[in-house]
Amino acid sequence: MRPAGAPAPDWLGTRDLPLRPDEFGEIQPTPPELVDRRLWTDDMLPPPPDDRFHITIEHPPPAEVLARSTYRDECPVTADELAYLTVSFFGFDGLFHTGELLVHADWADELAGVFEGLHAQRFPIEEMRVVTQAEQDAHPTGDGNNTSAFVCRTAVDPTRWSRHASGLAVDINPFHNPYVKDDLVLPELASAYVDRSDVRPGMIGPDQVALFAELGWGWGGNWNTLLDHMHFSDNNR
Questions:
Q1: DSSP 90
Q2: Containing H/E element for 45?
């Protein structure tokens, strides 16, 4: 029995957006079902046995995890420099779930501590899983909300690698915490969350920023030329 939230609408992740000239999806109004998004989590991994924080760290990552990730030889990090984490997290459904992350091995223990802090805060996360290459290559639907770390890709500025490509950045609840620059909002249907004064569950706030700040990691919500509310990184980029 799920005590809170709602099931995902049947259309979630299925409706391709028209493309803009910059190859991002067309920015469209947030669907009513997602204006206050509190969707149930579908368990990919076995849920934890209780409400305590549970974690595993594997270094190097299992071969099957790398195989279904975006990892490839040209990434700016070697497989041996990554670690695979499974961590407990609190869902919008009021239940506890198990998520997975690939992160830079040098920060595995510290990032585990951050997610333990989020767990203690009962900060809700919708899903947390390793991004696949198929997802990375898919046509934009503008409604994704996966919390992740390593993704072998360039930054929104395609002339440089993203810190995600080294496992040195974490995005949390992207739909609740969108990237905003001029007329671009990512995810493209998340405009309802651009107004940060309208605080709803899942939105990053001072308590969450403080957990990363203890590591010396910066938050994209504090940037000047653009705002990347989902994004935390080791070098504040």
A1: E
A2: none
pTM: 0.97
Measure CA 103 to chain center: 12
SS3 at position 147: strand
Domain boundaries, the chain: 52-233
Cis-peptide into 60, omega within 30 deg: yes
- Which residues, including other chains, have CB under 8 Å from residue 78's CB and lie 6 or more apart? none
Cβ neighbors of 108 (< 8 A, separation 6 or more) are 57, 59, 83, 85
Tens of pLDDT, residue by residue over 111-169, are: 999 999 999 999 999 999 999 999 999 999 999 999 999 999 987 777 789 999 999 99
pLDDT, tens digit (0-9, with 9 covering 90-100), for 154-185: 877 777 899 999 999 999 999 999 999 999 99
